[in-house]
């Protein structure tokens, strides 16, 4: 096998000197400074900012109106129109979750219940929001369409315990979702 020796390209005089590079950087900075003084920055128009910079004024201004429809945010559990749980504790979302943020403890449905054919429902369903990466795999794998990623992106808490959403909190966030649910289908 032949060895091929590569030679580096020769630098020009302006590339050898650092001064032209510094001037280019200063020109970019001055361009941004002049645009911000004239109020022609992105923040002045699209971000609804003060116009003096390219920074969004976060607590007052939010991204809500600029999020695309396909944005995946906070995961939440949903119920059907009657208020029944859609989740059947299949644990597919728990197994597929890359950061292992979901934990489910299945519970049985009593045999005297009207919907005892379903066999189980979640006794505990927790999502650790400090670990969740909003990948959407839990939503895609759910056979009963019980978990959805909402467009909420600002999840805050004062402690780690507050960032672990339990079943009640997840249903509160998710609300009601209409449509066919395989779990309650009489034919299935």
Please outline the helices and strands.
Elements (H helix, E strand, L loop, with lengths): L12 H4 L2 H20 L3 H4 L29 E3 L14 H5 L5 E7 L11 E9 L8 H5 L5 E3 L14 E2 L1 H8 L14
Antiparallel strand pairs: 1-4, 2-3, 3-5
Catalytic activity: a quinone + NADH + 5 H(+)(in) = a quinol + NAD(+) + 4 H(+)(out)
Main location: membrane
Keywords: 4Fe-4S, Cell membrane, Iron, Iron-sulfur, Membrane, Metal-binding, NAD, Quinone, Repeat, Translocase, Ubiquinone
Task: Give a written overview of the molecule.
The structure is a single chain. The chain has 188 residues and is of the alpha+beta class. It folds into two domains: 16-59, no CATH class; 75-184, Alpha-Beta Plaits, CATH 3.30.70.3270. Helix content is 24%, strand content 13%. The strands form two sheets. A three-stranded antiparallel sheet has the order 2-3-5. 16% of the residues are buried. The model has no long low-confidence stretch (mean pLDDT 83). It is a peripheral membrane protein. It is an enzyme of class 7 (translocase).
Describe what is shown at a glance:
By secondary structure, the chain is an alpha+beta fold. The chain is built from six helices and five strands; from the N terminus they run αααβαββαββα.
């Amino acid at each position: 096998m032949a060895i091929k020796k590569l030679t580096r390209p020769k630098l020009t005089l302006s590339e050898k000197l650092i001064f032209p590079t510094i001037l280019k950087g200063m020109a970019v900075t001055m361009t941004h400074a002049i645009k911000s003084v004239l109020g022609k920055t992105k923040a002045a128009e699209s971000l609804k900012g003060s116009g003096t910079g390219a920074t969004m004024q976060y607590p007052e201004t939010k991204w809500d109106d600029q999020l695309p429809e396909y944005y995946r945010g906070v995961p939440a559990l949903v119920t059907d129109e009657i208020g029944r749980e859609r989740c059947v504790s299949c644990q597919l979302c728990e197994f597929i979750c890359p950061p292992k943020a979901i934990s489910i403890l299945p519970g049985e449905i009593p045999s005297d219940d009207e919907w005892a054919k379903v066999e189980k429902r979640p006794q505990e369903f927790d999502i650790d929001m400090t670990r969740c990466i909003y990948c959407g795999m839990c939503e895609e794998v759910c056979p009963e369409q019980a978990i959805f990623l909402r467009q909420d992106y600002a999840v805050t808490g004062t402690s780690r315990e507050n960032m672990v959403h339990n079943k009640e909190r997840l249903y509160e966030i998710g609300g009601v979702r209409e449509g066919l649910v395989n779990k309650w289908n009489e034919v299935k």
